[in-house]
Structures are given as C-alpha cells and as structure tokens.
Amino acid sequence: MSNVLFTSKATAKGGRDGHVKSDDGLIDLNLVNPAGDSSGTGSNPEQLFAAGYSACYDGALNLMASKQKKDIDSSITAEVSLLKDTDDGGFKIGVVLNVEIKGVSQEEAEELAKAAHDFCPYSKATRGNIDVELKTKAV
C-alpha cells in the first residue's frame, strides 16, 4: 500500500456475538446476531458497514456536486443485508443506497449519484464483489 493518508483500527472478539472496540475507544460496542437467538442489545457488522458506507458515499456525493458547482443538501441511507449465497451455501452481503438530494433535478441527482458511486472508496472496494443498488430521489 502506498500513499496511506491515515489508518483506523478496531478489534473484534467473539464474532457476531462478541464485542468490537476502536483503538481510540469511540466505538465500543457489543455485537449481537440479529438472525440468532440473542436477546441482548448491540450492533452487528452489517449496521457498522452501513454507517461507514453511507458516510463515505455522502462525502463523495458532495465532492462531485461541488466540482460541478451545484449547491445540494443530501442524505444517504445504506441498507446492508446479509444474504444466503446460493453458489456456495454460505453468506454474502448486498447493499441498497437510498440517495436523497435537494437542490437539483431528478436527472441531475441521478448523474451525481452515479459519479459519486464511481468515486467513493467503499463503492470501489465493493465493485464486482457485492450487489449495490442506487435508489436516487431528488427532493
């Protein structure tokens, strides 16, 4: 890896029914498997991925808008689903990015959403690996 700008660290123990903590302590969460029998309260890997992806994508979207001199207000809701993988009997994830953009037409919103998807580091990391669907709405 070259040109590293920064590195974030988190440690997980116990898998989906364990605990995750970032090195700075800002993230310090119990994990529960929503598909399991757990009655505990906690997060899960899909929820954490949704938070990261939505934040990263919104940053990319606003950068694309600023480069095109468009003044927007945006909101991204990432839905990350755990899916049964019919190919190998295991599991995989799928993502729906619900993109709401205020200040542009529907056509401009769709163009900005695609440009952000091409640029976003999370989108680049997942491209060709998982299904990501963009649902874009000008509001």
Description:
This is Organic hydroperoxide resistance protein OhrA. Belongs to the OsmC/Ohr family. It comes from Gracilibacillus dipsosauri. It holds the Pfam family OsmC. The chain has three helices and six strands. With 139 residues, the protein is α+β, with helices and mostly antiparallel strands. The protein has two domains: 1-43, Single Sheet (N-terminal domain of TfIIb); 45-138, GMP Synthetase, Chain A, domain 3 (2-Layer Sandwich). The protein has a three-stranded antiparallel sheet with strand order 1-2-3, with no helix packed on it. The protein is globular and about 45 Å long. The N and C termini lie far apart (40 Å).
Helix and strand topology:
Blueprint: E1 10-13, E2 19-22, E3 28-30, H1 45-67, E4 73-84, E5 91-102, H2 106-119, H3 121-126, E6 131-138
Parallel strand pairs: 5-6
Antiparallel strand pairs: 1-2, 2-3, 4-5
Q: Span from first to last CA?
A: 40 Å
Would you count the extended β strands for me? 6
What would the principal axes of the Cα set say about the shape?
Answer: globular
**Quaternary organization:** single chain
Please summarize the sheet with the most strands: 3 strands, antiparallel
Low-confidence stretches: none
The mean pLDDT is: 95
CATH A-level architecture of the largest domain: 2-Layer Sandwich
The fourth-level CATH homologous superfamily of the largest domain is K homology (KH) domain
String of helices and strands: EEEHEEHHE
Key traits:
alpha+beta, 139 residues, 3 helices, 31% strand, KH_dom-like_a/b, 6 strands, three-stranded antiparallel beta sheet, N-terminal domain of TfIIb, GMP Synthetase, Chain A, domain 3, OsmC/Ohrsf
